């Protein structure tokens, strides 16, 4: 299909399209949360906390795939790279549908994450091809606000599909969403990387991109900050089902509480599209990380008065405030990290995304595996990782 003469999409269509492509990762993770106990039981997970690997395996595939798809999109173009990712995501869904044991399930989840990395990381290059600075942060913030509707409804969707057809049917729902994304993207989105700007795909090119990101203080610092914030979020996603359904015994209401918290991120992301134009990205991320760390430290200390489980309303109120901060961070931190990398947008987005993911997975998973029936590990993660992110931002901003 020829795309050279096709005009760029208007923001009113471009934003929801890239939000849908980005949302495959969130859908593949959040819709599985209500099904984790059934998957562990049916496929023979050795320990209760092992079901968390269904979540972290997708993140592992995401981190690996981002390092490949970003540079690949610099070589073959944005459209073919995203289409290849969608195809691999579909293959991973089919592997999980027919998984006979827990190990095969984990392999399928890694492949899903690897495939979803295509649209996830290349979308950032797609945006960077067309926007920069505060305009880029504004587009990403509006996309995040639309994107957040997916994790808000994903657990409820997963629970409903599970009730109707069992947990394996959830993966057929993933296939349907991927099909819609494939058709919409293929029919409407033009290529944004002309052949004259394409770069070779080789280990040397990837290595050069990694070294360039590591040499640029701002890109490295904001990438580290993104990784620390995401580590706290990985902790939350990995143990959210256990916290709400086991510690707080919310039962079938778990998707409702999850949705309320997800909407806090969406509301803050939407507000950020306006706030960033008034206050700038650096002021916002410094304030948000400091607030996140202080609120979480206070929640961790207050939990001692309740034996590790404060009233649910108090816990939700604290997380809601923390998630408002997170909604101000993701789009801005990524935009700040990518700002000096416009000349290597594909490789740059791959390195930024992969490095932040590889920071977050071991840190977040290690904390989540220490879940002990209280909120101590989760609140400590938000406090410590929030403080680490603030420190990285301060370091990145020095000249």
Structural class: mainly alpha
N-end to C-end Cα span: 46 Å
H-E string: HHHHHHHHHHHHHHHH
Gyration radius, rounded: 20 Å
- Residue fraction in strands: under 5%
Low-confidence stretches: none
Q: What is the average of the pLDDT values?
A: 88
Label the overall shape: globular
Count of structural domains: 1
CATH class: Mainly Alpha
Assembly state of the chains shown: single chain
Number of helices: 16
Name the CATH architecture: Up-down Bundle
Strand element count: 0
Helix content: over 70%
In CATH terms, what is the fold-level topology? Growth Hormone, Chain: A
Query: CATH superfamily name?
Result: MFS general substrate transporter like domains
Record the SSE blueprint.
Layout lengths: L10 H20 L5 H8 L9 H24 L1 H20 L4 H29 L2 H15 L1 H17 L3 H20 L14 H13 L1 H31 L6 H26 L1 H23 L8 H16 L2 H9 L6 H24 L7 H21 L3
Helix pairs in contact: 1-3, 1-5, 1-6, 1-7, 1-8, 3-4, 3-5, 3-15, 4-5, 4-8, 5-15, 6-11, 6-14, 7-11, 9-15, 10-14, 10-15, 10-16, 11-12, 11-13, 12-13, 12-16
Describe this structure in words.
This protein is mostly helical and 399 residues long. The chain contains 16 helices and no strands. It has a single domain, classed as Up-down Bundle (Growth Hormone, Chain: A). It is 79% helix and 0% strand. The radius of gyration is 20 Å and the shape is globular. The N and C termini lie far apart (46 Å).
